[in-house]
Amino acid sequence: MDGIIRITVVGDGNTGKTCMLYAYKDKKYNDHHSSTVFDSYSMSIEIDGKPRRMILTDTAGQEEYDRIRILAYKECDVFVLCYSVDCRISFLNVRNKWARELMKIKPNCRIILAATKSDLRKIYNGCVSTSEGLRLKKEIRANDFVECSSKLLLNVDIVFQKAVIAAIHPHFVKKTKPKKEECAIL
Amino acid sequence: MNDEVVNIRPCYVLLEQCTPKAQLALSAELRNVINERNILTSKSKEKFLSALDEINSTDIETRRKKRKHQAVQEILSSEMAYLKQLEIIMNFFMKPIQSKGIIGQEQFEILFGSIDNLYKVNGELLNELKNDLMSVSAAFFKLAPFFKMYSVYAYDYKNCLDTLKNLYETNKKFTGFLLNQESRPEVQSKLSSLLITPIQRIPRYCMLLKQVLDNTNCSEPDYDILKDSLKKLEAVARHINTLVEERENSQRLLELLRCMKNGKELVIQPGRKLIKEGILVQTIPKRNNTEKVYLVLMSDIIMLCHIRKTNLCMPNSLKCHSIYPLNKCKVTQNTKTKMFEITCHDESVVLHHQKVQDTDEWIDVINSSILKCIRNRNTLRKGSSSRRPAGKDNLRPYMDVGVSPGVSRIRKRRRTEENVEREDGKMIRYDDSCDGVNCLPIKLSCRKSIHKDGSDCEDRKDSLFPLRHHFSKEIDVVGVDEPDKETPEVDPSVFVFGNENVNSNRGFSFRLNSIFSGIKRAFGFKSDQ
């Protein structure tokens, strides 16, 4: 730990990664003008009375380029892994693609599973439910699970707070993580 | 603000057809009043005006134009932010390091070698963008070829990171400097995360351009160029991606090499790629027990290794016990036992993964690799087609043969095949000095080039094609020089090195011999005359 916590947001395209980052950074949601690119953003936060630095990074646009994406993983402490509740494919990809990839590159990485666009539950039927999300959290052994909505600015702060907590309390987290089987080192 | 008013104005005309006039006048009036008098704070004024804009731009067309404008603005602003980051690297890291001489020149080159160039390319892009905001497409179109520079950067990035890590651990002066600079209020970031921004930049351009393209009508003049630029940038991004992938692949192969106890010579071959590797469970029916094996799937072979140490990163942790040529392998799946069997000639191995899902994945990967291997072989210079599985006892010959591993099974039979072909009257003669296994690829390609009609020799791209083509031209010239002799009809497709067969055009071959013997010697073929 060198005082800097690096948080990277990953997940399928169109799950609202960039939007969530902007919602957290600016504390507002702009329906009319959504930016495409989130440059990595550095902010200072106070933890236990000590100032710490937090760097947020976006991976939007790199979904197709797996190798480019992976290069950024090494420089990261916590991943916020997103799926959107209205898109089941993005939910399935968490298990099939993202969690595997993260585990392969960083076997002991800390993951916060975030279900985005939770406001859409009211509008669409057949959205991914909370219990399904919790089950997935256990399956991929994520550190925490949060449902959030950038549009309503609901729980967005909590996502990043939990990410920070996971970053600064790695030992506490490791205890709760059952070690079922040894991972193949690839 | 004034800019925006000018931009919005055309919509008033459009709206007049469908919207009541009174409402329009009101919003326009309000806008004017707000702009003229300084009655609101700047923040609420902005809010108010943007709300007004929103009412006005109900029309889809206007909204689209506005979005396009925003997208273009975003390109400009993010480009500026990006250049600022590059400037931070240059001003707070590169310059002080160079002036103070904290690290050696060589390491400096590895770390920051291409930052300068990237900065120049992007500075140029920013200039183009600033000159004329609406010519985004032209700017990108002009500079797209230069973005290939990024692939150089991406290729070296891993090396750069390793060097950085190494310096961080060994060079105390450098570490102190780095910590000091990283905590500066202007920087507030880690050097390693700053260094990755160039790699992430190209995919971002794709996204930004796509955003502009989505908000452009196909009738607009810049639509085509925009589309082209986007395509070019996507190609660059893919290129970077494949470069990084290849680099990682070869590095992993080298790592694998370090882990192996034997058969190191077998792993690295030109054109060979690592596809998948992992621990599988092998069932041995004879002994009725199971054993963990390490399976390495490469683009043309499958390698089975014994695991000798639990830590697979250690040297000598793997011992290769058999290699199967992929093009002769077959995978049969047993749905009941959730196992699969790889058969290669008379060798076979029954495997499964601890997870059923992963077993299926393995089967898919192996099957697709086999197909790909066979497809690739059809267009490639070939190794021996009679490669056989090699086991413990005959691993040695597998190593010896180099390009075409495997023990030849039917070498004798091939001899008889040659004889049959000779009887067809073609000028085929295999140079006896080429009899070694190493020459097999050449032999095979010669044999393949024989066609009974010999008509479409130009189309055939065998390994000797360019040479043969060249020779066939020379033959024509000789023929013209001496018209009194019967010009032999030379089928260029069947020309091979070595002596020609006795029963076809003896005189011709003698004449040519003097020309070719020199060339032959130059190519290292022994003449047995």
Automatic annotation (TrEMBL), chain A:
NCBIfam families: small_GTP. This is Rac-like GTP-binding protein ARAC9. InterPro entries: P-loop_NTPase, Small_GTP-bd, Small_GTPase, Small_GTPase_Rho. Signal peptide: none annotated. It comes from the Eukaryota. The keyword Nucleotide-binding applies. The lineage of its organism: Eukaryota, Metazoa, Ecdysozoa, Arthropoda, Hexapoda. Keywords: GTP-binding, Nucleotide-binding.
Automatic annotation (TrEMBL), chain B:
SUPFAM superfamilies: DBL homology domain (DH-domain) (SSF48065), PH domain-like (SSF50729). Residues 273-371 form the PH domain. SMART domains: PH, RhoGEF. Residues 67-243 form the DH domain. It comes from the Eukaryota. InterPro entries: DBL_dom_sf (IPR035899), DH_dom (IPR000219), FYVE_RhoGEF_PH (IPR051092), PH-like_dom_sf (IPR011993), PH_domain (IPR001849). This is Rho guanine nucleotide exchange factor. It comes from Nicrophorus vespilloides (Boreal carrion beetle).
